[in-house]
Design brief:
globular, alpha+beta, about 80 residues, two-stranded parallel sheet, single chain
Length: about 80
């Protein structure tokens, strides 16, 4: 889960970790971009993004990625 707004909501985080204790959360407090986002998402088959720019440059670095889910509305930030 890369969305900083989701990760600041302890109720949502608690519910997510209850179902998926191995979930990796963005606790940096800012939107991840470029190589920082690619490094954070490395090695996962499924991800949930917020407003992080998930562009071709990032996606091309995620060889194991099979599924992208969007937290929030709109897909402007997903290529």
């Amino acid at each position: 889960m890369s969305s900083p707004s989701f990760c600041k909501n302890e109720t949502l985080v608690s519910e997510l970790l209850e179902s998926f204790p191995e979930a990796h959360l963005n606790r940096e407090g800012h939107i991840l971009k470029g190589d920082e986002l690619a490094e954070f998402l490395q090695g996962y088959e499924a991800i949930i993004v917020g407003t992080d720019p998930l562009d071709e440059a990032v996606i091309s670095q995620l060889s194991e990625l099979k599924f992208v889910s969007k937290y929030g509305v709109g897909l402007d930030n997903v290529d």
